[in-house]
Amino acid sequence: MSEQMIIHMGPQHPVNHGLWTLKVRTEGEKVIDAEILIGYIFRMIEKMAESRPFNTFQPLADRLCYVSAMSWEASYVLALEKLMGIEVSKRAQYLRVIMLELQRIASHLTWLSAFTADVGIVTMQALTFREREYILDLLEHVAGSRMMYNYFRVGGLKHDIPKGFEEDARNLTHFLDKRIGEYEDMTEDSKVFRLRTKNVGILDKETALNMGATGPVLRASGVRGDIRKIEPYLVYDELDFEVPIGTNGDCYSRFRVRMDEMLQSTKIIRQALDNLPGEGEISQKAPRKLPKGEVYFRTADPRGEAGFYIIGNDDKIPYRVKIKSPAYSNLALSSHLLRGVKVADIAPIVASIDLCMGEIDR
Amino acid sequence: MGYGLYDGLVDMLLDFLGLSDSIQSSLRSTLIDSLEMTTILLFLIVNTIMLIWLERKAWPRMMNMRGITFVDFNYGHFFGRTWKFGFLQNIAEFLKFFSKEDIVPEKADKFPFNIGFFAFVVAPPFMLGALLPLGGDAVIADPAIGFLLIFAIFSLYPIGVLVTGWSSNNKYSLLGAFRSAAQMISYEIPLLLSIGAVVIVTNSFSLISIAEQQTLTPFGLPFAVLMPIGFIVFLTALAAETERVPFDIPEAEAELVMGWRTELTGFRYMMSMATEYFILLIGAFVGVSLFWGGSYLPFVPAEFMNELFEFWPLIATFIFTAKLWVFVFLFIWIRSALPRVRIDQLLDIGWKRLIPLAIINIVFVIVVYLLNPSIYGV
After folding, report:
1. Do A120 and B257 touch (CB under 8 A)?
2. Is B191 within 8 Å of B275 (Cβ atoms)?
3. How far does the CA of residue A294 sit from the closest CA of chain B (Å)?
4. Option in B248, B254, B342 nearest A342 (CB)
C-alpha cells in the first residue's frame, strides 16, 4: 500500500473528544500530513461578553470549558478585579486557591480517563471518574452545582464555605494521594503502556517555545513555564510547591507531568487549608461600571495559560473581550506532532495534548 | 467414538419402529451423529453466550461497576435485595440485532461482502464442533491429524476478515483488515511452535490422548506447569489470534472506530462479534486439552478419575467446562489490565520474542525428554 489515502477523523470519531476533524493523509500505516478543522461548536462567547453587563457574563465563562469551569470563571473575575483595582481579603484568596486546585485535579482526572482509554486501558476510564466524583461532590457542597459553579464574584466569593468543608477537603487530599499512586501502578508499571507512550510524539524544547505550547505540554518539554510561579496571582507566592517538568517531551512526559501536578495540587490544598485565615470579608462591594482602560490577565488553567483581555469603557458592558485559550494553542501543535507517526499513535498523541473543544471554538 | 449418551435412546426408538436390519444400522449411526452434533452445537452456543455474560459481568466488577443487571428472570426479593444477574441481556440483544436493518454499503463490492463474510468468518468455527472433546474421551470424531485440523480451519478466518474489510469500501475497514491479516498470519507460527513441544513429548495430535498423557506425569501435573514457557507463548499467541487485548489492534476503537467490521450492521455485526467469542472458546478447548490436562485433575489418580467418568460421564464434562471458564477468565482479566500495543510493536513481539521463546521451549523440552522421559509421562 504505497498509495496515499486521506482519512477524515471526525467530527464524530473516537479519537477526538469533542467536535472537530482531523484530516489525516496516510501512506499505509504512516501519517504523512495532518490538518485540523475546527469551528463546529462556535457559540459567539466573546460577542456575548461584549453585549451584556459584565456580571451577567460570568455564568457563561463557566461554559468555556466544561471540565475546568472554576478556573475559567476565576480568569474572568481576576481580570475584572485587576481592571477595577480591587484587593480581595486573604480568606477569600485562600478559598479561591483551594477551589482552583480541586478543579485542576478534577480536570486532570478527566484527562487521565480519556488518555488511558485511548491507549487501550478501558478499566481506568471508569476508575478515574470515581475519584473525580468525590471532588465534584465537594465542590457541589460549596457552590451548589456539580459542573457550572458560578461561585466566584468580583470582590470575593458568592458565600462562605459550608461547615465541615475543611476537614472533608483535607481527608480528600490524602485519599487522592493514595489513589493517584494506584493509578501510577496501573499505568507506569505496565510494559505495554510504556511501549505505547515513550518516545511517541516528541516535542523538543525549541519547537515547543516557537510554536507557542503552554501548560503541561510546554512543561513536559523541559520549560519551567507556570504562571503560578512566573506571575504569581492570588496567594500562590505564599505557598510552597514545585513545578514538575519533563525531560523528553513525549507522551509519557506529558502523562508524568500531569500526574505530578495532581500530587502538587493536593499539597497546595493542604497548605492553603493550614494557612486559611479564620476571618475575612468573603464578598465585598464592587463598582457597577467598568472603568475606562484595558487589562490582560492570565492564569494557570489546568491546560496552560488562560487569559482575558478586557477593554472597559466607563460602562456596565465591556467594550471588547478577547479570550486566550490554552487548548487552542496546543491544538495548533498537534498537526506538527502527528507528521510521520504511525496511525495507531494518533490517539495517544492527540489525547496527551488534553483538548477541550468548548474553549477552542468558543 | 461418540459421547455414548444417545445409544440406548436410539436403540429403543429403532426397536419401536421395527425396521429391517440394514436400514436400522445405517439409520442408527445417522441418528446418533445428528443428536451428538446438535449437542455440541448447543453446548458451544450456550457457552459463548454465557462467556459474553461473564465478560460483561467480571470486567465491570474490576471497574467498580455492576455490569449487566436488569434483563433477567424474576427470582424474587429475599435476603434484603432483589436478585438479578442479567442472564437474558445477551439474548435480548441478539434479538435486537436481528430486528435491525441489514445495510450493505452502496459502493461496497457486494459479492465478496456478502459471501466472504459468511463463508470465511462465520462458517469456519461452526465446522469444528465434531473435533472438540467434552471431557474424558467424549468426542464425535478423533482423526489422526487431530488439532491440526482445528488450526487449518482457523486459518480461513483472516481471509474472511481481509475480504470483508477490503470489499466494504471503507478506509477504517481496509486498514483494520490489513492489520488483522498481518497479525493473524504472523502469530500462527509461534502458536504452532509452542504446541510443537507438546506433540514431541506425546507423539500425538489427538486432544484426547494428549490430555490423558498428562495423568502419567509426576503427580499428574499438567503441561502448563511442566513447560511454562510454551504455555505463555501459547497464551500470548492465542490472544493475538483471537484479537483480544493487548492485541486487539484490528479493531482498535481509538483510531479505527471498529476496524474491519466498521461497515457491518445488524445481524452481520452480531455474528462477527459472536464469532470472535466462539473462536476464543474453541481456543480455550485446545488450551485446556493441551496444557491443563483436559478433564483430569493433578494429584488425583487417573484410575480413580476414569472409574468416576465411567459412572457419571457428565462429571468429566463439568470439570472440563469449569476449566474452560477459568481459561477464558484469564483473557478477561488481561483485557481489564493491559493497554493495546501498536501494530509494529505487535509484529516485533511476534517475530523477535515469541518465536525464539517457542524454539527455546522446544529445545528445553527435548533435552529434558532425553534425560528423563518419565517427567512428561512417557
Report:
1. no
2. no
3. 44
4. B342
Nearest CA in chain B to A17: B254
Q: At B299, which amino acid appears?
A: F
What residues does A36 pair with on adjacent strands?
A22
Peptide bond into A11 cis (omega under 30): yes
First CA to last CA distance, chain A: 40
Residue A107 belongs to a domain with what CATH number? 1.10.645.10
Q: What nine digits make up the cell of B124?
A: 469456519
Give the model's confidence band at B105: pLDDT under 50 very low, under 70 low, under 90 confident, else very high.
confident
Strand partners, A8: A23
CA nearest to B170 within chain A: A7
- Which chain B residue has the Cα nearest residue A195? B341
Q: Which three cell numbers stand for residue B100?
A: 435491525
CB contact under 8 A, B342 and A190: no
Q: Which domain holds residue A270?
A: 4-361
How far is B273 from A154, CA to CA, in rounded Å?
A: 56
Closest Cα in chain B, distance from residue A5 (Å): 8
Cβ neighbours, 10 Å, residue B32: 20
Give B319's Cβ-side CA count (13 Å radius): 19
**All cell numbers assigned to A195:** 511501549
Nearest to A123 among B246, B254, B336 (CB): B336
Which amino acid belongs to residue A355?
Answer: L
Cα→Cα distances B190→B237, B238, B327, B357, Å: 6, 9, 19, 9
Rounded Cα distance, B15 and A168, in Å: 80
What is the bridge-based pairing of β-strands A293-301 and A30-37? unpaired
- Distance from the A237 Cα atom to the nearest Cα atom in chain B, whole angstroms: 40
Structure confidence at residue A266 (pLDDT):
92
Q: What pLDDT is recorded for position B211?
A: 85
Residue B257 has pLDDT above 70, yes or no: yes
Give CA–CA dist A103/A123, Å, rounded.
23
Helical ranges in chain A per DSSP H = 45-49, 54-62, 69-84, 90-119, 122-143, 165-187, 191-197, 205-210, 215-220, 227-230, 251-275, 326-338, 346-353, 357-361
pLDDT average per 10 residues of sequence, chain A (362 residues): 78 83 86 88 88 88 87 90 88 90 91 87 85 90 88 87 89 91 87 86 88 89 86 87 88 90 91 87 84 89 89 88 89 86 86 86 84
B310 inside 8 A of chain A by CB: no
> Taking the mean position of all CA atoms in its chain, how far away is CA A165?
24
* B250 upstream amide cis, omega within 30 of 0: no
> A-side interface with B, Cβ within 8 Å?
1, 5, 7, 9, 13-15, 29, 116-123, 125-127, 130, 186, 190, 192-193, 195-196, 342-347
Contacts of B255 in chain A (CB under 8 A): 9, 14-15, 343-344, 346-347
Task: Give the span between the Cα atoms of A205 and B259, in whole angstroms.
Answer: 36
Residue A83 CA to residue A153 CA, distance in Å, equals 14
Give the span between the Cα atoms of B270 and A126, in whole angstroms. 25
**What length does chain A have?**
362
Structural domain total, chain A? 1
Query: Chain A within 8 Å of B62 (Cβ-Cβ)?
Result: yes
DSSP A33-94: EEEEE--TT---HHHHHTTS-HHHHHHHHHTT-SSSHHHHHHHHHHHHHHHHT----HHHHH
- Chain-chain contact of A29 with B59 (C-beta, under 8 angstroms): no
Rounded Cα–Cα distance for residues B225 and B219 (Å): 11
DSSP code per residue over B217-266: SGGG--HHHHSHHHHHHHHHHHHHHTT-TTS-GGG-HHHHTTGGGTT--H
Q: Given a cut of 90, is residue B326 above it in pLDDT?
A: yes
